[in-house]
Amino acid sequence: MWTKETKIQAEMEMANSTSVFAPGLTIKGDIEAVSDIRIEGDVCGDVSTPKKVIIGISGNVEGDIKASEICVMGKVLGDVIVEGLARFTAEAKMRGKVYSEKIEIESGADMEVMVAKYKTYLNLEKENQTALHKSNPLINERLFDQPMAKMGE
């Protein structure tokens, strides 16, 4: 039987775990997790977690990655968005944009990237949301000047 204490303990264990995608595994679709993620296989889709992401030497991601921290030893084709440290080892191959507060690139890493601070990403997201709000006719306030039709009319 589950008590409050065992539920809390189970949640803590889940939060401290790592989701591992092994070599030879191919995922087509987005990945969202609450735990750390280690990718040694192939992922074609976005990866998102509030924790750490590790792309192993055999790992390959085609999509955007959002995390608190990342270490890339494999290949990434997409944008990397991290609040903390973005680390690229000598074996890493990266194409895309990197938004991070801190970045570490080892000599030998194959990088074709644009690098900007994480705060820049947040500002861009805010601007995009504002522009979307202004350009979306369903959100535009002028539509609400008309009285609503009743059902069945």
UniProtKB/TrEMBL annotation:
Domain of life: Bacteria
InterPro entries the UniProt entry points to: BacA/B
Family indicated by similarity: Belongs to the bactofilin family.
Protein name: Integral membrane protein CcmA involved in cell shape determination
Organism of provenance: Cyclobacterium marinum (strain ATCC 25205 / DSM 745 / LMG 13164 / NCIMB 1802) (Flectobacillus marinus)
Source lineage: Bacteria, Pseudomonadati, Bacteroidota, Cytophagia, Cytophagales
